[in-house]
């Protein structure tokens, strides 16, 4: 039985690495990969992309923002990596088993991710993956999700997993989207849409998981954590300034999650009794401090901008420390995975998953369950459970009127 399970898992792993051999005949195609070219790729994929999700908010009041644009990594990927040859794919069950459609969509979760909840709060439908829509303005008018699992601020972060769309590439994809809006609705119309839309940025954790903590290129001897944190934060700051030049004005920047509590590191560092690895969380805590300070600087530098920073570590640690109040009784073990804490092997099959994810904090090695995402989304929206966004929450950003 054990041998059969291992053989089965290896088979799944191999098929995940090279799921679509025809997708990229030329590596340089990746940078400028467009939805139109993705349509060809998707013809060889399973029919579970985000385009098949018919989810819309309740009919009623007009939306609080015309669109939601998402830039990031697996924390907010809604299907980008379904179209890429990579290990970092969530296109098979049990991923998505508790989602509205009960099918995998590319979200690294058993159900919804934070931006799904926030889209509905804004009065918008779930926004599609950039590679999972037709490329028409009609498909993108309410927003686009450019996030790609494995992506980092550093181009090579996560590259050992396979192809991904890096932070810089995602910014370029948004620029291409903006140009399409200009051609379709004119410069004034495009600028009005973009300046009133919400931009959600959640990236940087892979620069630690797949680069700094692995000591790639001897980076730990070249950069102390403080210097590395400054480098990552300042790069994000620079890209936000670049977005500002194309009339982006409302931005939510997410801090890093407490990966020192993630099942993978509990397994790797042989945690006793599920205790978090504080040396890792200290690096994350320091990064979030630096990023929050830089966001405050940006707010002063960029006129008419509303940029908020949400401390994901702060919000997540509140859930972990007060787990019983939130209804969680499994705080260290992943719902889906193998090895101690479920942190050794990634979630590959339904047989590896627990029966009920709602009482778990962690879904797999690194990602939280839908239940945790719902709580964090509430905090981002209005600080319902704990205040983790500064200097305001998202609701205050979109409903406040200019004086």
TrEMBL record:
Biological-process GO terms, alphabetical: lipid catabolic process
Matches recorded under Pfam families: Lipase_GDSL
Top-level taxon in the UniProt lineage: Eukaryota
Position of the signal peptide: 1-23
Keywords from the named record: Hydrolase, Lipid degradation, Lipid metabolism, Signal
One GO molecular-function entry: hydrolase activity, acting on ester bonds
CDD domains, A to Z: SGNH_plant_lipase_like
PANTHER family recorded: GDSL LIPASE/ACYLHYDROLASE FAMILY PROTEIN (AFU_ORTHOLOGUE AFUA_4G14700) (PTHR45648), OS02G0290900 PROTEIN (PTHR45648:SF13)
Family under the similarity heading: Belongs to the 'GDSL' lipolytic enzyme family.
Protein name: Uncharacterized protein
């Amino acid at each position: 039985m054990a041998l059969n399970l291992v053989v089965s898992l290896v088979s799944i792993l191999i098929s995940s690495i090279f799921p679509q051999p025809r997708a990229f005949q030329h590596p340089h195609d990746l940078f400028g990969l467009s939805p139109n070219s993705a349509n060809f790729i998707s013809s060889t994929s399973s029919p579970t992309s985000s385009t098949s999700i018919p989810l819309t908010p309740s009919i009623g009041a007009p939306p609080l923002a015309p669109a939601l644009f998402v830039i990031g990594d697996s924390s907010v990927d809604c299907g980008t990596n379904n179209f890429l040859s990579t290990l970092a794919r969530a296109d098979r069950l049990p991923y998505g088993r508790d989602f509205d459609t009960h099918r995998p969509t590319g979200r690294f979760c058993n159900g919804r991710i934070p931006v799904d909840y926030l889209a509905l709060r804004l009065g918008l439908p779930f926004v599609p993956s950039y590679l999972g829509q037709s490329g028409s303005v009609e498909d993108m008018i309410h927003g686009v999700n450019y996030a790609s699992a494995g992506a980092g601020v550093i181009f090579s972060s996560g590259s050992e997993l396979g192809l991904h769309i890096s932070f810089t590439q995602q910014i370029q994809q948004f620029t291409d989207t903006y140009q399409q809006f200009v051609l379709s609705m004119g410069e004034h119309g495009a600028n009005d849409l973009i300046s009133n839309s919400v931009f959600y940025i959640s990236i940087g954790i892979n620069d630690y998981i797949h680069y700094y903590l692995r000591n790639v290129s001897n980076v730990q001897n070249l950069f102390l954590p403080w210097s590395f944190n400054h480098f990552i934060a300042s790069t994000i700051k620079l890209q936000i300034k670049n977005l500002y030049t194309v009339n982006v004005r409302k931005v939510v920047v997410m801090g890093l999650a407490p990966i020192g509590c993630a099942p993978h590191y509990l397994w790797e560092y042989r945690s006793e009794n599920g205790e978090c690895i504080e040396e890792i969380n200290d690096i994350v805590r320091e990064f979030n401090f630096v990023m929050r300070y830089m966001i405050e600087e940006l707010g002063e530098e960029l006129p008419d901008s509303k940029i908020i920073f949400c401390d994901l570590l702060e919000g997540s640690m509140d859930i972990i420390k007060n787990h019983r109040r939130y209804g969680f009784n499994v705080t260290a073990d992943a719902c889906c995975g193998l090895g101690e804490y479920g942190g050794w092997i990634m979630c590959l099959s339904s047989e590896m998953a627990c029966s009920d994810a709602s009482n778990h904090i962690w879904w797999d090695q690194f990602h939280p369950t839908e239940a945790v995402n719902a709580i964090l989304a509430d905090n981002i929206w209005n600080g319902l459970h704990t205040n983790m966004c500064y200097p305001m929450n998202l609701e205050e950003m979109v409903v406040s009127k200019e004086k």
